[in-house]
Amino acid sequence: MTGRQTESWLLDRPSDADWQRWGIDPAWSQIVEAPSHDGGSRSWHVLDTGPPDVSEVNSPGGGEAAATVLCIHGNPTWAYVWSPFLRKLQSRHRVIAIDQLGMGYSERGGRRRYVDRIRDLDDLIVALGLSGGQPLVLAAHDWGGAVAMGWAAQDPRQVAGMILCNTGIGVPSGRSAPGIIRLAASAPMLDVVCRGTPTFVEGTIRLSRGRITKDDRNALRAPYKTSPSRAAIADFVDDIPLGAGHPSERALAEVAERLRTVAAPVLLAYGSQDPVFNDDFAKDLADRFPNATTHRFARAGHLVMLEADVAAVAEAWISDLVEGQLAPDTSGEAVTEKAGTFWTDLEDRRADDDVAIVDMAANEELTFAELIGRIEAVATELRRRGLESGDRVAILTPPGVDLLTAVYGVWRAGGVTVLADRGLGLRGLGVAIRSARPTWAIGPKRALAASRAMRWTPRAQRLAIGDLTSASCGDLPPLPAPDDEAAVLFTSGATGPAKGVRYLHRQLECQRDALAATYGITRSDRLVAAFAPFALYGPALGIPTALPNCDVTKPGQLTAEVLDDACQRINATIAFASPSALANVVASAVDTSLAGVASLRVILSAGAPVPSETLHAVAALAPDASLHTPYGMTEALPIADITLAEID
């Protein structure tokens, strides 16, 4: 590499006016002298908010203890990339965003290899006095993530938690290193792209495709305006092991192996539009850490901290961490409470010949005994074909008996169902299902073929639902434990792109119990579900369930006659329909002689605001029914409930 300055030197820091323009308090900008492991000392630039105001930390709703959040940038950024964290978290936590040596406004000099940077970080942490005391949370991005993971893996007890944003520790199995990086690291391009010109800096900024502001772009460029100031950018790229025998290859591999010893909670906050550290890298880290949670930002890219409100997610996550709601992994300690209680009501009806599920559109019904047999057949066949506990299974089966048996069959086999609302549309469905990275897919053959053509499930083994339901029963694994993952749910709504919500079996059980308690549901009740997801609770509640003869994704198809037919088929006592579906029931009721509807004792409607006029019109059709509008979200339902009487 030519034209390199080997002596140590510092850039002039931005003016107060520049800091303020970028939304940074000038007082946060400090130079810290840290004794170095290789002799002498190093001058580090940090943005340090200082300890939070004690009155803020201990205010009502505040945490009882503050954390120190140490933020480590990647290449070719600097501490500014964490500016949303500095602004958002400063009132409750001390936030320190550092410039790695050779980067930002820290000391420049000789090149640093991966192991050097881990030791450098340790030097700074000691100099800042962060060992012991308040909980230490590492937040890291890009190559800063590899450095942070290397430091944490040395002694996992040092960290209370980690927030990792679009980073990685190795190339995930089954794929090659990102093409952009391989090109930049190639011998003909490295010096020109990374040091000689600002191409690498500008390319990183352009990955955000307009999702960051002009001030963000100017701030990111500020420390890298000359070739000497960009030398470490080239060093970082050159330190990526793209071939055997690279000087940093062994160190990275050793850190990757030790990540399983990091029991502290880890939040993986990833922008899904990143062509460099994409979802494959998030999945790789999720598999390595024993206590990781992934939060995808569907419309964000590589600079996810600037493109999306990662800081707000981090704030809530850190609050849970310091308040003890996020516990370290316990290395598989046994759950002492009774497992499998989600299945109790269904299991109690194993020998019951009463109807369990009726699909009016397909004119198909199953008794409880038949339903349990079919569920166990699906579960048995899935295990025969290699499904393991925790495997994710995309459910591509349309609403009906097969959907219900597929979902319960996957759960009984120990798998995790991936369910996406068809209201998302084809593109939204594809984005949602791909993001969950299922290893299996179940559905009709046409749906499976379409999912392959549209690459919804590129790595999944595809199984036709008919082959599963016709299989014979056999040995089954133990019932899932309460804290085993059960489902990843995507629903359409008004709160932005669909986000996958993880459900544990414990949560499904609690939600079932909340519904039963709120609406007084007993075994004598019978449910008409004009909203397919709600039908899934029928078997868990141990009550017969009917699906009306309509496409439940098209509310306009639910007429008064269709609803009444379903109610009469099972002598229903409870009905659930969306507000628009109920409005169509009212509009299509040519007379009020709807015997099935009139026999209902509870009518539920949710998913959007329900006009009181609609509720009054429905009440005229079902004069003895209590009309409820529960409120909730994919993450929690019901949170609240109000009746028509309370509205009036």
Walkthrough of the structure:
The protein has 3 domains: 16-322, Rossmann fold, CATH 3.40.50; 336-518, Rossmann fold (3-Layer(aba) Sandwich); 548-648, Rossmann fold, CATH 3.40.50. The protein has 28 helices and 22 strands. The strands form 3 sheets. Strands 1-2-4-3-5-6-7-8 form an 8-stranded mixed β-sheet, with helices on both faces. Helix 16 (368-384) crosses helix 17 (401-413) and helix 25 crosses helix 27. The longest helix has 17 residues, at 368-384. It is elongated and about 90 Å long. The N and C termini lie far apart (78 Å). Residues 59-65 and 330-340 have low confidence and may be disordered.
CATH architectural arrangement of the largest domain: 3-Layer(aba) Sandwich
Provide the number of structural domains.
3
Q: Strand order, main sheet: write it out.
A: 1-2-4-3-5-6-7-8
Shape: elongated
Q: Proportion of β residues?
A: 15-25%
State the major sheet. 8 strands, mixed
Give the overall average pLDDT: 90
- Low-pLDDT stretches: 59-65, 330-340
Distance between the termini: 78 Å
Count of DSSP H/I helices? 28
Percent in helix = 25-40%
* Structural class label: alpha/beta
How many DSSP-defined strands? 22
Which key phrases capture this entry?
eight-stranded mixed beta sheet, Rossmann fold, 648 residues, 22 strands, 3 domains, alpha/beta, 28 helices
Short description:
The protein has 648 residues and is α/β, with parallel strands linked by helices.
Q: Mind sketching the topology for me?
A:
Blueprint: H1 16-21, E1 29-35, E2 41-48, H2 54-57, E3 68-72, H3 83-89, E4 94-98, H4 114-127, E5 136-141, H5 143-154, E6 161-165, H6 179-185, H7 190-196, H8 199-206, H9 214-221, H10 231-238, H11 249-258, E7 266-271, H12 279-288, E8 292-297, H13 304-307, H14 310-322, H15 344-347, E9 355-359, E10 364-367, H16 368-384, E11 392-395, H17 401-413, E12 416-420, H18 425-436, E13 440-443, H19 445-453, E14 461-464, H20 465-469, E15 485-490, E16 501-504, H21 505-519, E17 527-529, H22 532-535, H23 537-541, E18 545-547, H24 560-570, E19 574-576, H25 579-588, H26 595-598, E20 602-604, H27 612-621, E21 626-633, E22 636-643, H28 644-647
Parallel strand pairs: 3-4, 3-5, 5-6, 6-7, 7-8, 9-18, 11-12, 11-13, 12-15, 13-14, 17-18, 17-19, 19-20, 20-21
Antiparallel strand pairs: 1-2, 2-4, 9-10, 15-16, 21-22
Helix pairs in contact: 3-14, 4-5, 5-11, 7-10, 16-17, 25-27
